[in-house]
Amino acid sequence: MTQNTPNSTVETAAAAAVSITDLHKSYGDNEVLKGISIDIAPGEVVCLIGASGSGKSTLLRCVNRLEDPNAGTITVGDYEATDPDVNLDAMRREIGMVFQQFNLFPHLSVLENCTITPRRVLKQSQADAEAEALKQLDKVGLKHLADRRPEQLSGGQQQRVAIARALTMKPQLMLFDEPTSALDPETVGDVLAIMRQLAQAGMTMLVVTHEMGFAREVADRVVFMDQGVVVEEGPAAEVIGNPSQPRTQDFLRRVLNPLSD
After folding, report:
1. Where does the pLDDT of residue 186 fall: very low under 50, low under 70, confident under 90, or very high at 90 and above?
2. Which of 56, 84, 139, 206 could disulfide-link to 48, CB 3.0 to 4.6 Å?
3. Membrane topology per the record (predicted)?
4. Beta-ladder partners of 193
């Protein structure tokens, strides 16, 4: 099926914006995800935290079907992402994704980077695509740089353009895969501020991050992953401020106090 009908079992069962059930993913003998189950409500911000290699980014990529799970189910809105017959192009129009690297086309201007997908995928006119792109660039504070090329921008500015580009498709879900990890410390705050604004506006967000301050302040829920499983999840203040699991405690001690014994 390409899209679930209003009477489908999947849609009836999935009140969540995203529902992940018993998800498994392996690369050869390396099992990266070992039965992950997470539901995300509409408008909820969920931050995935954990050490590198714990499966966070792989989970995010499975939601958008950039990786194919070995088992389990994922629903995103009205779409069952793991159905072999799902219309991936239609599903991905509902999802915006921002990566560690900015993935902007170097030969295009900022404005052109933000209009190319709406024009080609949504078949918008150039005028409509540019109007929406300028609107989103204004939201991230970069409308005045619409004619620049990516190489003329700082890393933080390029990442803000990447966010604006994703928003031109008017997604229902935003996925962020460590969006500040490649940035200079001085530019991290600008990107996090845009993400905070999106959260306050009610955007459903699944965020892989090492920014514990952002997770504590913005996330409705924090999920701590380790070695492909969910170790602990709950309100940000509880998981980050008073974790119950020893593995979570050890991880946060190392992240929040890296010079401690």
Report:
1. confident
2. 56
3. Peripheral membrane protein
4. none
Ramachandran class of 175: left when φ > 0, alpha when ψ lies in -120 to 50, beta otherwise: beta
The total of other beta-carbon atoms located within 10 Å of residue 195's CB is 24
Amino acid letter, 187: T
* Cα 242 to Cα 107: distance, rounded to the nearest angstrom: 48
Measured distance CA(199)–CA(1) in Å, rounded: 32
* 183 Rama sector, left if φ>0, alpha if ψ -120 to 50, beta otherwise: beta
Across the range 179-204, mean pLDDT stands at 92
pLDDT of amino acid 257: 80
Residues found in the chain: 261
pLDDT above 60 for 9: no
Count of helix runs (H) and strand runs (E) in the chain? 10, 10
